[in-house]
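User: tokens in, sequence out, please.
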């Protein structure tokens, strides 16, 4: 299999699923700043793979941090995770999207100062009231950020997505739901995709490194290990909290 790399003279930083751990994000940024000081005149890109919110207790603070200027002189790419999409779906039509609350959405509500009442969670029309409460509490800048996140970004022969791809479909024909939620058969698939896919979404004890893919969700919200992959030429290494 061909070795797939970022563009020449480029260093690529890719951050895995944060899930409300603003404390780990800030620590990882400090490590990235230190690492980037060795890049010389290389072009830097900083990619975040999505799932910024839910589960951890600091979802609002994560978005606030991401809205600040970049910690390094780099072009930043913010991808959409299935948890952000679930939150947007809840805001748009809460009843069919109510499963979000059991996926970690309650932690996100709490981070925005919202404690759902029993009535909001159990009575007819209650979820709509809860969604309206969230809409009022959500800063406009946060909502704009979430709506502007992309499904994927490609840099040279490196394709960054939240969850993965469908190996049986062309890269330009991947369904949104696949990019946001797929696991198998993608994760163990050895096929040559014509790119190397970097993804999060599925928790690994340690980064998964294969010729055709790299998985970097190390379960930060529970393990305290937030992972950033660093790609430069054919080199792959990792920065972790």
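Assistant: Sequence out:
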């Amino acid at each position: 299999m061909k070795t797939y790399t970022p563009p020449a003279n480029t260093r690529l930083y890719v951050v895995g699923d944060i899930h409300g751990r603003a404390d780990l994000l800030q620590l990882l940024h400090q490590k990235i700043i230190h690492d980037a000081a060795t890049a010389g005149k290389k072009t830097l890109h900083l990619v975040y793979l999505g799932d910024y919110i839910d589960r951890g207790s600091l979802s609002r603070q994560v978005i606030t941090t991401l809205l600040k200027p970049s910690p390094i002189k780099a072009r930043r790419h913010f991808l959409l995770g299935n948890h952000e999409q679930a939150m947007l779906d809840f805001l748009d039509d809460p009843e069919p999207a109510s499963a979000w609350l059991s996926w970690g959405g309650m932690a996100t509500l709490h981070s925005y100062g919202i404690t759902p009442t029993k009535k909001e969670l159990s009575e007819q029309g209650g979820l709509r009231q809860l969604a309206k409460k969230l809409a009022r509490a959500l800063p406009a800048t946060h909502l704009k950020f979430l709506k502007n996140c992309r499904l994927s970004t490609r840099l040279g022969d490196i394709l960054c997505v939240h969850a993965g791809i469908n190996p049986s479909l062309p890269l330009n024909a991947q369904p949104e739901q696949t990019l946001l939620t797929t696991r198998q058969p993608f994760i163990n698939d050895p096929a040559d995709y014509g790119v190397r896919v970097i993804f999060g979404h599925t928790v690994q004890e340690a980064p998964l490194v294969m010729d055709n893919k790299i998985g970097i969700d190390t379960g930060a919200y529970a393990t305290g290990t937030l992972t950033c992959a660093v790609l430069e030429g054919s080199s792959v290494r990792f920065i972790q909290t």
